Amino acid sequence: MILVLKRSAAAAALGAVLALSPLAPSGHPPAAAAQTTEAAQREPLEIATAKGVVAFEVEVARTEEQRSTGLMYRKSLGEQAGMLFDFKVDQPVYMWMKNTLIPLDMLFIRADGSIARVAAMTTPLSTETISSGEPVRAVLEIAGGTARKLGIKAGDKVAHPMFPAK
Questions:
Q1: Does 146 map to a domain?
Q2: Range(s) of the domain holding residue 35
Q3: Looking at the domain assignment, is residue 165 inside a domain?
């Protein structure tokens, strides 16, 4: 799940957002959550690292509904799979792991495709916010531990149509 807040509104809105839960009364994910995630387009994405180029096949969350559902309720995620969240403009981004069952690495990406920050092995089911640390255009979520295993670090370059080459 994602929290997209302006810094000045973060404290006030965080309490309200944390109080909301997309779980149905039964404790199971709402049907819309599964349908939204499945509807996200899969696209190739590459990351140029010091070790070489790493290829992924990612779902792209472009709509507010897709971004708010993200990878919630997934029980696994392949090593070369992920979800790319498109925020359309550079802005501070705050993520959390509520209703996310598996650890993830979050790669916060600037508009030029460079990775600003890697939040590694995020804690499943946590409501602790994870900040981009600076305005970013997108976030790539991949399986927890994948960034370390593949040598993905801040400063590496992401190649995807969302980040036009200059």
A1: yes
A2: 2-7+31-159
A3: no
